[in-house]
């Protein structure tokens, strides 16, 4: 005959046996909050209560089955919580930045709020992120070259992660010859419109997805596009109503036109304060800025653009205070009257044609000019 009380007690003993191996203080550190520990305590108390209740009552067979079912449900919940603790422990001990893949079961941490990095690999694909709806703060997705296809990217459902404030999309190194594939993947990684900061590194698509430049991203204040060697078209970032900082580096772009600022008749970059172009060795010409664009631009940095020969009319940038030019040997000498009247600092280095120009500009400005 089956010993029912023993059968009931066995799941609880299994759970309690596992818990005995963990220091409660360690669990508290891993979860970094009392909430998880309370959940664990509640689950175990439920097991004990059901067991005591069964022992005290003489129940018919049907009632025994119901109690057994309830007991097993509680035991499974407690086991799930212990598995959750194990994944937390793995994340903490490995340090996100050093992981080569994510711990098994990361996708079941539906209450997880902080995850600084997700490493894509054969063992941990982006589909694991589907249920992580509560992620918040900063998330860096690493090794995006390991994403199998655009469906995997879509299954991450980043558009549901409304609490994320910063996203970093990072390919470990540019994979040439996969421009279309990577463009489709980035298209499917469209974030929620609450996003404030976006960084993209080592992307090899020849253009960016439509969502990058969509004015409905009304909270996006900072963008950095770094080392995108196949990109030859910039998105219409001037349409973003809240953008304050923009850094663009290492692209194939040779010409920047009006589309960068947005449609004619609308103010391009209405709140942008800092604009940086860096290491763009094919850029020859920047045009398309009209009066009224960039009304709040205070800092303009152009660095390592060896072919650049023309820039927009600087005099339209009425609030420009700091202008830095570095390693742009073909940059032409400009008449003094094209410089903004609010300009307070001009820094020029590695610009052959401007070697003597600094001596002729108006006094009252902080000027640093080196060969």
Quickly describe the structure:
The protein has 371 residues and is of the alpha/beta class.
Fold topology:
Layout (H helix, E strand, L loop, with lengths): L3 H16 L4 H8 L2 H23 L4 H34 L22 E3 L17 E6 L7 H6 L8 E7 L8 H10 L8 E5 L20 E7 L16 E7 L3 E2 L17 E5 L6 E2 L12 E5 L18 E5 L18 E5 L16 E5 L1
Parallel strand pairs: 1-2, 2-3, 3-4, 4-5, 5-6, 6-8, 7-9, 8-10, 10-11, 11-12, 12-13
Helix pairs in contact: 1-3, 1-4, 2-3, 3-4
Organism: Kingdonia uniflora
Protein name: Rx N-terminal domain-containing protein
Keywords: Nucleotide-binding, Plant defense, Repeat
Task: State the main characteristics.
371 residues, two-stranded parallel ribbon, alpha/beta, disordered N terminus, Leucine-rich repeat, LRR (right-handed beta-alpha superhelix), 11-stranded parallel beta sheet, single chain
* CATH-defined architecture of the domain at 232-371: Alpha-Beta Horseshoe
Any idea of the CATH topology of the domain at 232-371? Leucine-rich repeat, LRR (right-handed beta-alpha superhelix)
The shape, in one word, is: elongated
Could you give the distance between the termini? 95 Å
Secondary structural class = alpha/beta
GO molecular function: nucleotide binding
Domain R13L1/DRL21-like LRR repeat region: 126-249
Pfam families: LRR_R13L1-DRL21, Rx_N
InterPro entries: LRR_dom_sf, LRR_R13L1-DRL21, Rx_N
